[in-house]
Structure prediction request, 954 residues.
Amino acid sequence: MSNDKRAASAPWIRTRLRTAPGAATALAVLVLVTAFLAAAFPRAVDAYESKGLRHDIATADAGHSTVEIARPQPGLELPQEQREAETRNPELTRVGTALLKALPAPLRADASSVAYGVRTTKPSVATEPWLPRPDAVPPKLTYVAQSGLKDHATLASGAWPTAPDGVTEDSRAVQGAVTEETAAELKVKVGATITLLTAAQEPITVTITGIVAPRDPNGSYWSADPLLRSPSLVPDPSSSFPVNFWTGTVLLAEDTGPVLLSTAAEPVVFWRFPPDPTGLTGPDGTRLTSVIASLESGPGLLKVRRIAGGTAVVGTGLGTIVEANARMRDAIGPVIAVAGLGIGSVAAVVLLMTGALIAARRRDELALMRSRGGSLRGIGGRLLAETAVTVLPASALGLLLAVLLVDEGRWWPGALAAAGVALLVCVALPVRTTLQHIRPTLHGAREDMVSARPSRRRTVAELTLLVLAVGAVTALRRRGTSTGGGTDLLVSAAPVLVALIAALVLVRIYPLPLRLAARPMARLRGAIGFLSLARAGRSSAGGALPLLALLLALATAAFGGSVIAGIGDARDDAALASVGADARVSGMGDRATLPDELVRTVSGLDGVRDAAPVRVEYSVTMPEAAAGDGAGTRTDTAADTGTAGDDAADAGDAATAALVGVEPASYARLARTHGLPAFPAARLRATGPSAPLPEGTEAGPERVLPAIASPAVAARLGKEPRAVRTLSGDFRVQVVGTTAHVAAVSSTNFLIVNAASLEQQAPTTLLLAGAPDPGKLRAAVDENGKKFVVQLRSEERARYVNTPMQAGAERIYLAAVAAGAGYALLAVLLSLLQTAPERKTLLARLRTMGLTTAQGRRLLAFEATPQALLAAGGGLFTGWATIALLSPGVDLVPLALAGVAGSDAGPVALRTDLWSLGLPAAGVVALAAAVAGVQAWWASRRGSITELRAGDSR
Prediction:
């Protein structure tokens, strides 16, 4: 009997697929795309996390990322032969090989760059008279006998240093080499000798036999200790005067470590293991942090000491690098979860809509089967088998495409996501269909949203969702997207819940305007308006499910677009805050002034729209805070910002400030051009005793200059004139206004005055508006010497190059915007297709009553308009409300500015992006109108008899 059932089932599935190949193909394509997106999302997250971890380790300073194992020289209680043997290459190689094998996973070392040897830790004074002495202080040198010199350097001149047979602690002559940079700075030549004293003050002669050039100067071999490659001029900490001396490193022959044991330079034996990040993945970060902590002070250190000696220590900054990467990952993760949950919810609703469309198309067929004795189990089983034949291969193909296109990441999260898509589709259609046919019915009740009254169960469900959404949004606003313990799915789902509540509310209020509009329409002579409103109220296309899909898609697209726009705006603002204008010319020193000829030449270059010379003096000491006047000066100008309480709290932090002397008119134009707060130039136009001075004229300290200050400085100075001593002159200032930002300096504490009122008026900075050619600008500046620096806003903006983690997160949000817009349009199309047969039949009937083709087009257009406008308007409002509600809890700093030295790391909030908010909504209206027009055109090409002869479809 089972064989007969199987024989009967197979023809059923083949027959159904042959009967409706278009529907099966469309469902397969939808499942394939959705399964691909679902599987690609976790793999893309894993991929950018893995690439970010590798990037952070690979680009970190080698001295910070290298794992160094070191131990002091062998104890003096040991025999000399044993001490020397422990510092020779065979023993060092044996220990290094054992340590390399003992490194715990996932920590792996780059075997080609492993270095070991003996080095001195205490610099020794070199007294040779030919060595440079900048401040009459002799240089101090360190010495290292390190392995692999010939493999990591090329011989520039001379010969490679060699170790004579039997170098011991008693040897008094060895050979060495220096790098080209060391030779150039310290005037070292081939054949020169340097004396290194032993602990007994006996000389060891080090003969420089060669000068070498590093093969990879930035590699770990040379950068783990930068002095190996380049000498450094450092201040003398033991001197009470500011004197400097040179320090550098001499590279001894590879097997001459025993000779350093006789010195008092505190030699140590070391092994350096640069990390190899190529095999690391994002999830390895947590294990790597634990492993490093164990090596530094845990079970791992005990294992190292069993190999390298009981006094060995492990030093590395790799743990700090991995922890910084983990902090960025934890900060980005919750923001990405918002996009993932949003798109996942939209996709799930669209799949449910697809199942509803298929169920509606097959309602009559399945009702007939049910009326003729078909069981729910049998009908559901057939539908399940029929759906699985189409869905499972499509889901598997989507997973395969995700694995092929996203080449990194764990496979099981993607497999679970694709399986979830297949399970949803396979279960949704049979369950929805069988529930509609629990009892055989000839005709169902007419759907009418206008006259429908929600049940009590629906009201309770909607109120429950409302409470849940309010709680999620409140939690997000209070604690942000990161809870400190991972991603909170409830908080990340807040945009989805907001869209859900909006859909339920709009469905509730949607019948009200239809009822109000239907009454006057019923009194008009034409039937088009009344029929369109009646159809709009009875159409299932205006139900909760299609509207929910549209609102979710539009809200997700708006949220994703706001994230992308916020990132771009934050980087633009940070670049402007750093440079101050489109271009900036300033001296290398704080006191360097710009010649008048330079100012005129640069201001006249092509592409320069405006120029503002500015005099900047940093670290000007401010007077003591004014007693009882902490609120500062308050004015009614647009430039005034902040609150009195905040100013009073910050007044104590404004002990020093930057003095900015500006030309009020040009600076006001520049501030207006770059979108900075309005600058009240008229307030700096000093007259009377504070009028502008001729260049070089001395002014008495009784002069009072009007000034515009930052809120903290204004709070410190108070309302009365206060004396200020500067290099530009001594005078008193009276705060006449406040502003939070100034283009010339990035400091938050500043004081702006009229430069013409200063004794020293020469500008130190020139701010430019426009787009001058960078080459011509630098050439014009270089004509006045090499002591001036050119900064471009575009180049500063380019510094914010995305790390792999930031770039991956941005790509996910771009995909979220695109997918949200695509699913929104698909939801519109599905909702209209669900009622397409009813519309075609309606047009056929009305044409038999005299309805013209033009009237039919208007009827369908007017019928689709209420639902389209409801979805578009609701989507605009939901997207805007979601961004407004969630922006206080979302900080985009990790995505926008993290990892860039000197960037403004202030909070970066969400900003509404009009394109991502309005374009998908406009697309919804346009698509609805286009589908209605095409449907009317297609129906007009077919006769009424063709539509009606197959039977009357209600």
The first helix runs from residue 2 to 19. The chain is about 50% helix and 15% strand. The longest strand covers residues 608-621.
